[in-house]
Amino acid sequence: MTKRLLALIMALLMLGALLVSCSSEEPPAETTAAVETEPETEPETTTKVTTVRETKPPKVYTYETVFKIDFSKMEDGATVPFSGSNWVKDLRIEGGRVKGTSTGNDPFITYKGGDCNLEADKVQEIRIKMKNNSQNTSFQFFFTTETVSWSEPASMKASLLWSAADGDKNKDNDVVVYTFDSTEWKGTITNFRIDPFTGEGDFEIESIEFVSKTEVKQ
Fold it and tell me: pTM of the predicted model, to two decimals?
């Protein structure tokens, strides 16, 4: 009996010691996951670069008259320095203009003054002031050289702004033809002719001017 009691007491003592040791253990420390944060940075700023395009100044030219026929200085009835050999009648000087009437589809007048000897490279523009009393607006200028006779390649074309279709508002046309429009414009120009339009109607020409155009170096 005594041995059993002693064994029971020893068992209780050992159990108590075991419980005390378990309660004295510190609970495991909580672990926290470290969240890495990036350092605050200022927002990037972009600078817009504006490229200033360099603008070139407009070209400047000087003009010089090389040869001019001015009918405004001629008296009525003076000799007309043109022959109206094709579809043209009543060719005359009247009111400071050479006037004529086209009776067909291909009128032209040919210069017969005999003083048209021009160096082609000195003439860049040909200016004709004329009144168009037909319904058509197709103008053409032909020329000859020492080596080239009358032909389509030896010509320049222009479109008339005013015609009989404008009625009472029909004005003088300041026609400009550019010699670079024909590859045959070279050497010496020996003669020229004017096709005022294509069709029937009256025409009036006040002046024909051959102009040299030179760019001014800036």
Answer: 0.74
